[in-house]
Amino acid sequence: MARILVSLLVLLAVVAQVAANPPCSAGYYSSNGKSPCYACPAGTYASQTSQTSCTLASPGWYVSGSGSQAQTPCGQGYYSAAGASQCTICPAGSYCNSNTNAAPTLCEPGRFSANPGAKQDCDRCPRGTFSSISGATKCCTCCSGYYNDQVGQPSCFKCPNKGNFQQGWSPAGSISPLQCIATDGALSSCSQDSSGTCPAAGGAVSSQLRRAATTGGYCGKSGYKSCPVWNAITSNSGHGTQTTMYKYECVNIASDVESCGGCVDDPRGGNRSADGGRDCSAIPNVDDVICSRGSCNILKCSKGSVLSADKENCVPPIKRSHSKRDFHHDEA
After folding, report:
1. CA 114/CA 83 separation, integer angstroms
2. Fewer Cβ neighbours under 10 Å: the N or C end of the chain?
């Protein structure tokens, strides 16, 4: 009987001690896992009772408040290091495609991310542009004398030999080798430096330039030819505009005064292109001209000019000692 009484007294003492020092609840801790307990601080958690320490949030996870029993994944577009109380949005030039990213992944060369929070992957640089660095926030425009007919490229392709030129010329941002023509002005290099600064695109183009002396499609109409049409784009510097080809159109080269006889690469001076085309309206000192059967037919020269012997241009008159002869192309 005495032994039973002693055992009962011991049990009561243990119960009283437990009641006086209960175990720490989940989310709390102490040196012995019993009361008095302290809430786990932000960035840590305790998933079980009676904990003597708190667990740091894992990389890619976070714990926002104190006394937490679990950690939360950051989600796509965000990342965190161990012990984080909040997640950080992935910066521009990178992406975070997991729900538990420990660090952002930089965009590969040929790709870019203009805005923070990219989730799956960086965007590919469009045609006519490139990026040679990791972590790009934008793509650079291909320089004059270069082109890029593919997306996601780390560099642009140099224009091939054209006529007497070892490197053909093309407008900045060209998207096809068909835009390379036989004229000077091409840049010898087109490289992005390690800081991400884009090269000067160069290749300023006359506002009159509309078509290149090439074909890029099929025209089912007799007497018509497929010629590229030019469009304005913003340069790498962000100031001013350059031109780039954006579509083809079928042109009646037999009667189109701006593409008479073929596609026109450069209308300045009314010179004939490598394709055989000529912008009749750009011939100097001409007041009236038409395109007839693929040839410029000058009807009237400007004051002070006369039709040349080959009837291709308007030139200054040759001074003669005899009387002036009547010629219907002279000044009216």
Report:
1. 29
2. N
What per-residue confidence (pLDDT) applies to 114?
Answer: 92
Query: In 82-171, which ranges are E strands?
Result: 88-89, 94-95, 105-106, 111-112, 123-124, 129-130, 140-141, 146-147, 157-158
Which residue type is seen at 319?
Answer: K
Residue with tokens 């965007």: 123
Distance CA 232, CA 190 (A): 20
Structural contact between residues 249 and 229, judged by C-beta atoms closer than 8 angstroms: yes
Domain ranges in the chain with CATH number 2.10.50: 26-102, 125-203
DSSP 285-315: TEEEEEEETTEEEEEEEPTT-EE-TTSS-EE
Separation CA 328–CA 33 (nearest Å): 113
Distance CA 79, CA 94 (A): 11
| 3-class SS of residue 216 | coil
CA distances from 207 to 159, 171, 174, 283 (A): 22, 12, 16, 16
Range 125-203 classified under CATH 2.10.50: yes
Which residues does the chain have with pLDDT short of 70?
Answer: 1-2, 4-20, 203-220, 228-248, 265-269, 320-332
Token match 């002036």: residue? 324
Q: Do residues 169 and 196 touch, judged by C-beta distance below 8 A? A: no
Residue-by-residue DSSP string for 55-99? EEPPTTEE--SSS-SS-EE--TTEE--TT-SS-EEPPTTEE--SS
Query: Cα torsion at 160, 161, 166, 170 (round to 10°)?
Result: -60
Q: Could you report the per-residue pLDDT of 53-111, keeping only the tens digit for each?
A: 999 999 999 999 999 999 999 999 999 999 999 999 999 999 999 999 999 999 999 99
Residue 273 DSSP class: P
Q: Which amino acid is at 227?
A: C
User: What is the Cα–Cα distance from 124 to 154, expressed in whole angstroms?
Assistant: 10
The CATH-assigned architecture of domain 26-102 is Ribbon (2.10)
DSSP 8-state secondary structure symbol assigned to residue 17: H
Give kind and range of the element (H or E) at residue 247: strand 241-252
